[in-house]
Amino acid sequence: MKYLIINADDFGYSKIFNTSILLLIKNRLISSTSVMVNWVNDEQSDQISELLTLTKSHNLSIGLHLEFSDNNFKAEIERQYKKFFSIFEFSPSHIDLHKSTFLKESYPSIIEFCKEKNLPCRNHKFDIDDVVKTKNEVMSGTRMSFDELKRTIENFKDEESYEILFHPGSYDQNCKSSLNKERELDIKKIEEINKFLKENNIKLISYIDLVSM
User: Fold this and answer.
1) C-alpha to C-alpha distance for 65 and 39, rounded to whole angstroms
2) 3-state secondary structure of 187
3) Whose C-alpha in 20, 126, 130, 174 is 20 to 30 A from the C-alpha of 136?
4) Phi, psi (rounded to 5 degrees) for 62
5) 135-to-2, 120, 132, 160, 161 alpha-carbon distances in Å
6) How far is the C-alpha of 113 from the C-alpha of 119, rounded, in Å?
7) Tell me: the pLDDT tens digits for 27-69?
8) Which of 131, 144, 106 is nearest to 207 (CA)?
9) How far is CA 8 from the centre of its chain?
10) Can you give the pTM of this predicted structure?
11) What domain range is 17 assigned to?
12) For 168-187, how does the pLDDT look when each residue is reduced to its tens digit (9 = 90+)?
């Protein structure tokens, strides 16, 4: 058996994106999402409630999708973690990072925080000890063609864990996301790759499962 987390990044960034992510969860096509807490507002309260309800019936992890505007990493991680807790009333299932602008600079702080809170962390192929992560480095499904995704999945190794991230959603003219136009294609990619997970002996798991493995 091979193990795969399909994570929808950017929950909270847009109500329109949230709608698509919630539908993918309902249809059991993704196993995880991560939340941009800085963008969550009162207008999303019904969607947050729906996400919480889905955790009771679906194998789902909800992580913190960090974003930074400067190098004050430790304080910003703490602030966003507390905001996540105030929204959901539980700790994130894992921590990952929005964009790669501060990837190399911020990851020591992220890893230290994950160790402190005993939280899984997205695997960006940094030297991480004592932190739960997938066996293999995370892959961006957004930046891969469907054929590339299919070939990659067909080459998964037995008893190893993987994560593919996507940015699903419908076009939101009010959102400044650089990936706005790619989001509908990501939905199609997620739908297509799910069709051949079983034939390749791949089990869809969440970060919660990863902790217990």
Assistant:
1) 11
2) helix
3) 20
4) -125, 115
5) 11, 12, 9, 6, 5
6) 8
7) 999 999 999 999 999 999 999 999 999 999 999 999 999 999 8
8) 131
9) 5
10) 0.94
11) 2-212
12) 998 777 777 767 678 889 99
Ranges of H-type helices in 133-174 = 146-154
178 CB neighbour count, 10 Å cutoff: 9
Question: What radius of gyration do the chain's Cα atoms show?
Answer: 16
**Tally of CA atoms within 13 A in the half-sphere of 98 that contains its CB:** 25
Residue given tokens 């309260």 in the structure block: 45
Residue where the block lists tokens 């994130």:
92
Amino acid identity at 40: V
CB atoms under 10 Å from CB of 135, counted, come to: 15
Q: What are phi and psi of 69, to 5 degrees?
A: -110, -10
Contact 164, 149 (CB under 8 A): yes
Q: What is the C-alpha separation between 194 and 145, in angstroms, rounded? A: 15
Residue 2: enclosing H or E segment and its boundaries?
A: strand 2-11
For residues 196 and 57, what is the distance between their CA atoms, to the nearest angstrom? Answer: 24
In the chain, the largest separation of any two C-alpha atoms, in whole Å, equals 46
CATH of the domain at 158: 3.20.20.370
Q: In this structure, what token pair is assigned to residue 56? A: 């009771």
168: phi then psi, degrees, rounded to nearest 5:
-75, 155
Task: Report the residue count for the chain.
Answer: 213
User: How far apart are alpha carbons 132 and 186 in whole angstroms?
Assistant: 27
